[in-house]
Design a protein that fits this description.
Elements lengths: L3 E2 H5 L3 H4 L4 E5 L2 E2 L3 E3 L4 E9 L2 E2 L3 E3 L3 E8 L4 E3 L3 E8 L4 E3 L3 E8 L3 E16 L7 E15 L3 E5 L2 E8 L4 E14 L8 E9 L12 E6 L2 E8 L6 E6 L2 E8 L7 E7 L5 E5 L1 H13 L3 H18 L6 H14 L5 H22 L15 H5 L16 H25 L6
Parallel strand pairs: 1-4, 2-5, 3-6, 4-7, 5-8, 7-9, 8-10, 9-11, 10-12, 11-13, 12-13, 13-14, 14-15, 14-16, 15-17, 16-17, 17-18, 17-19, 18-20, 19-21, 20-22, 21-23
Antiparallel strand pairs: 23-24
Helix pairs in contact: 3-4, 6-8
């Protein structure tokens, strides 16, 4: 079907439409299919108010300083550059390949599929949270804000900052963020939040200050948070009054580096503390899913957070026991710590043991340095250098202290090796 140039069609009336550098087209009906194809510049504000296109208006080219679409339907934007584009109370708006500075959407049904589109900022606002679900895919944007809409489905995009508030339905697929803010998500407890192949990049790649990406979750109430094939290894999570009944994750890659609970202090300021309850909930979910790797990971995170929270003053022995586990094998996850401590303690204790025996005065340490490997064995013979050893009170004391210490470290080493084999 032949398309007609909208600008050509309006040329006869263009002069009286311009008022104070504003073109206002209102209460019009266009029966034919129209388009804007030429690379024309429109250095003024254009407003389409209550305009009906029986077929479709296609914008394929041009530079627009400001375009407002109000109560107007059936517009397809497939090209051009817009400094400011506002869509209000409109339906059937489709945005594909274009470049937009600020896109503002209010109570409208839109479909964004910008395979080569770039946006500086997108702002979507809907007065009815039970209303429209927006579909956005294949875009690149520095900032996307969505408030008070029925939901958002976001696919195959790269967004620096995404802020969502009062959005009861959320699905995100194959998208990378630097910062994600979720506030009042899932107003109804039956809602599900789906994340599939979501990842985060660092806020800064400066080697001297490599800041993690961040996810903020506030007043979230959902039935199920479903996470599949996601990588949050470069992200921290901050939670405030979160109520998630069940986590479900599939194809786990890397979880958040840190999970914080944001709490108010006596001075009404907020303080970040690692969130023990979130780690505990995720540990239980992993156990039910028979995901041993994730269960061990979350158990370690939970105990690390608890160790930081308690004090020596109120929980002296608990703090000591947790500290021993933390620094010897990181709660059963890092065997290298125990192995390193075995070597680190063996060298000075062997020197002290050697010097405390009468054997040391007649024989050089260099000649008997190889006996350190016998010394590391916690069940070595008491006469380490044979019958000629002149053991003293101090050599016996050092030996028994080293045996006890070594036995504990060997136990921690074996426990870390068996972290995925425990029942």
């Amino acid at each position: 079907m032949e398309e007609y140039n909208l600008i050509e069609a309006l040329k006869g009336n263009i002069d009286h439409l311009i008022k104070n550098e504003i073109i206002i087209i209102q209460n019009e009906t266009f029966e034919k299919p129209y388009s804007i194809k030429k690379n024309d510049k429109f250095p003024y504000k254009i407003q389409l108010y209550n305009v009906t296109f029986r077929h479709k208006l296609r914008i394929l080219n041009g530079f627009f300083e400001q375009l407002q679409i109000v109560k107007t339907n059936h517009i397809q934007i497939k090209g051009g550059e817009f400094q400011f584009l506002e869509i209000t109370e409109s339906e059937g708006i489709e945005i594909k390949t274009c470049k937009i500075g600020l896109l503002k959407i209010q109570t409208s049904t839109i479909y964004i599929n910008g395979s080569t589109s770039s946006f500086n900022e997108i702002n979507i606002n809907g007065s009815n949270p039970k209303g429209i679900i927006h579909n956005i895919k294949n875009i690149s944007s520095k900032k996307l804000e969505v408030t008070g809409t029925g939901g958002l489905i976001l696919k195959n995009s790269n967004i620096d900052i995404l802020k969502l508030e009062r959005v009861p339905h959320l699905e995100i697929y194959n998208t990378e963020f630097k910062e994600l803010v979720l506030k009042n998500i899932g107003l109804h407890p039956q809602n599900t939040m789906n994340f599939t192949e979501v990842s985060f990049s660092r806020k800064s790649n400066n080697l001297s200050r490599r800041e993690l990406g961040e996810m903020f979750v506030s007043n979230t109430r959902i039935k199920n948070w479903r996470i599949k094939d996601c990588d949050f290894s470069k992200c921290g999570l901050t939670i405030n009054n979160k109520d998630v009944e069940r986590y479900e994750f599939i194809g786990f890659n890397q979880w958040f580096k840190k999970i914080y609970q944001e709490e108010e202090t006596d001075y009404k300021e907020t303080e970040k503390k690692e969130n023990i309850e979130s780690y505990r909930a995720l540990k239980k979910v992993a156990n039910v899913a028979n995901d041993k790797i994730s269960e061990v990971y979350f158990r370690s995170k939970e105990l690390n957070a608890y160790y930081k929270e308690i004090s020596f003053k109120k929980n002296f022995w608990t703090k000591i026991l947790l500290g021993l586990n933390k620094y010897t094998n990181n709660f059963g996850t890092e065997w290298g710590r125990a192995l390193g401590l075995i070597v680190i303690f063996a060298i000075p204790l062997y020197l002290l043991y050697f010097c405390s025996t009468g054997f040391a005065s007649d024989n050089s340490l260099y000649k008997h340095w190889g006996e350190i490997f016998l010394f590391i064995n916690p069940i070595h013979h008491i006469e380490l250098f044979g019958d000629e050893t002149g053991n003293t009170f101090w050599s016996y004391l050092i030996d028994i202290v080293h045996r006890i210490l070594n036995t504990y470290l060997y136990y921690q080493l074996i426990a870390a090796f068996r972290k995925y084999g425990k029942n």
